[in-house]
UniProtKB/TrEMBL annotation:
NAD(+) binds at residues 134, 198, 203, 220, 239-240, 267-270, 279, 298-301. It comes from the Bacteria. One of its GO terms (molecular function) is nucleotide binding. It comes from Robiginitalea biformata (strain ATCC BAA-864 / DSM 15991 / KCTC 12146 / HTCC2501). This is Alanine dehydrogenase. It is an enzyme of class 1 (oxidoreductase). SMART domains: AlaDh_PNT_C, AlaDh_PNT_N. The active site is at H96 (proton donor/acceptor), D270 (proton donor/acceptor).
């Protein structure tokens, strides 16, 4: 198969879809790999690094799309790429369709085969291709939240860990999934007091077992959310509904209950956000303020640490890329139930029910 690795062109996105190590494996399996010149530079990989393992370096993104049967990316195609995607071409990347009707319609119109990293699902319900980026984003949420709590950033002026004689900051984590666990771990490590809310009691019991005593758990409901947002300095949104829009757990009217300078880091922004006032931002302009509450809602948070993120991503995507390349998408998905759940749009038809429900479309059922 001919596989293309284009340079990411989303704002301040420095990750790349495949490391040179991953390209070497593909070439050793008899596949042709086209890498756009400069695609790996942001992650610390030169064109020579790719050439040495057998990749062909192409000058433009258009050439990569035109000459490739499968595109392996990091982020969803943006508007400039829509017309480059070809009928029957496999596009394997993070899509998060439920948050963008424009993207969904563009991929329907392209009649490509869109396989989303974030909906590949193992039999135990875990999301193996989303997990590493959720781990990165969860940890980064605390780093960024701590920074934006500083007064020059319009935050409350709170040091999360406190100092002797001064209590630590308070962090509220919505969701006890991968993002929430990693955020709580980082916040607890800094010495902050952490409250974690979730509706899954098994997850809360797990948190209670593995986290230190200054991480406390409560059942998530509107009453408890309204109670805690009054007293917490940093709020991390880590809620996920597989392939669907995130629920709005914090509404606009709740912002008036928060203290001025409270910081919200909504990691769920890729799925529309779990805060009503969330809107996607970029690393170039990452934050905005509503009702004196600082919002950090960067839609590609792991892109700020591209070396770590690219290695972590290739570690988990490469086996699936090899499977798709060796067998073709139809045979690969027929043989692998986890990969089959990654199919979102095929030949102009939505095949993932959560996307159809988000935009009132009909979904074709794959048998």
């Amino acid at each position: 198969m001919i596989i293309g690795i284009p340079k990411e062109i989303k704002n301040n996105e420095s990750r790349v879809g495949m490391t040179p190590a991953g390209v070497m494996e593909l070439v050793h399996n008899g596949h042709t790999v086209h890498v756009q010149s400069g695609a790996g530079a942001g992650s610390g990989f030169s064109d020579d690094d790719y050439k040495k393992v057998g990749a062909h370096i192409l000058d433009t993104i258009g050439q990569v799309y035109t000459l490739s049967e499968m595109i392996v990316k990091v982020k969803e195609p943006i508007r400039e790429e829509y017309d480059m995607v070809q009928k029957g071409q496999v596009v394997f990347t993070y899509f998060h369709f439920a948050s963008s009707q424009r993207l969904t319609q563009a991929m329907i119109d392209s009649r490509a085969v869109c396989i989303a990293y974030e909906t590949v699902e193992d039999s135990d319900g875990t999301l193996p291709l989303l997990t590493p980026m959720s781990e990165v984003a969860g940890r980064m949420a605390i780093q960024q939240g701590a920074k934006y709590l500083e007064k020059p950033k319009k935050g409350r002026g709170v040091l999360l860990g406190g100092v002797p004689g001064v209590p630590p900051g308070r962090v509220l984590v919505l969701g006890a999934g991968t993002v929430g666990i990693q955020a709580a771990k980082m916040a607890a490590g800094l010495g902050a007091h952490v409250t974690m809310l979730d509706i899954n009691m098994k997850r809360l019991r797990y948190v209670n077992d593995v986290m230190p005593s200054h991480v406390v758990t409560e059942y998530s409901n509107e009453y408890n959310i309204r109670k805690h947002i009054r007293t917490h300095d940093l709020i991390v949104g880590g809620v996920l509904l597989k392939g669907a829009r995130a629920p709005k757990l914090i509404t606009r009217d709740m912002l008036r209950c928060m203290r001025p300078g409270t910081v919200i880091v909504d990691v769920a922004v890729d799925q529309g956000g779990c805060v009503e006032t969330t809107r996607p931002t970029t690393h170039e302009n990452p934050e905005y303020i509503v009702d004196d509450v600082v919002h950090y809602c960067v839609a590609n948070m792991p892109g700020a640490v591209p070396y770590t993120s690219t290695l972590a991503l290739t570690n988990v995507t490469l086996p699936y890329v090899l499977n798709l390349a060796n067998k073709g998408w139809e045979a690969a998905c027929a043989a692998d139930a986890s990969l089959k759940k990654g199919l979102n749009i095929v030949d102009g038809q939505v095949v993932y029910s959560e996307i159809s429900e988000a935009f009132d479309l009909s979904a074709r059922v794959l048998v």
